Amino acid sequence: MSRLEALHDERAGGPPPTRRSVMTWVAAGAFGTCAAVMAAFNLIFLKPRVTTGEASKIRVGKPENFSSGSVVELTDAKVVVRRDGDRFSAVSTVCTHLGCTVKRTDVGFECPCHGSVYDAMGGVLGGPAPKPLPWFRITLTPTGELEVDKQAVVPTGTHLEVAS
Question: 134 CB contacts (<8 Å, ≥6 apart)?
Answer without folding.
Answer: 91, 92, 96, 122, 153
